[in-house]
Amino acid sequence: xxxxGLDMTITRQxxxxxxxxxxxxxxxxxxxLDQIRPSLRNPDCEGPEQVYAIAMDVARLADRPELEKRMxxxxxxxxxxxxxxxxxxxxxxxxxxxxxxxxxxPPELYEIWQGKAIIxxxxxxxxxxGRCFAVLAGPGEKVLVPPGWGHATISAxxxxxxxxxxxxxxxxxxxxxxxxxxxxLAWYPLVQGNHIVxxxxxxxxxxRLQMITPRGYPEFGITDAPVYQQFIDDPAxxxxxxxxxxxxxxxxxxxx
Length: 256
Hints:
isomerase activity, 6-stranded antiparallel sheet, EC 5.3.1.9
């Protein structure tokens, strides 16, 4: 993973990470199948017992003071290969808890490192989910989820593991209750042969799902370089993650 600005390797048994000499991070948390069943279309499905490993607050030692000052945090996640019944491996759908220091539900910037991902997002977790997008992204591509949107990260290639990094608010928190109350997000991804197809969740009003590919985000100053390297080069670049209020006008009518 050194190509992505951090010296770390992925492990498969057990699922997780090994950090290089200049990188620190927590012991990865394992999300088991039993833990995420409430967010699945078929909670009784079969699949890998260890679904994914997540490590929040991974950083080079030299960067820690700057990250803490800017209320930023970098997380890394790796998924097992396989499926969850007829669904691909995926995270639990959630909304980010409002941060006390900003008063906003923070955005999140993803960068795919290995495999292919679908970053699914919807404007609201309510009867009407608003606009719904599924962004298909491969290695090196970035996807920005705006403040307050419900979202989930889905493996688009069930036969290979998925790994990604993400810039988050240091005061991060995941809220699952609203999503679980509706038995998931507004659209379920299903594996059909080598493809992902979509089924509407009847706990929401019918709507339209837009399948798109990643775009650049020049309005936020993001470049094609690895996102952790961009922080090393310019520590102020991702201040909009922890202080989305400072660029409030950019979130109006945001299009992923």
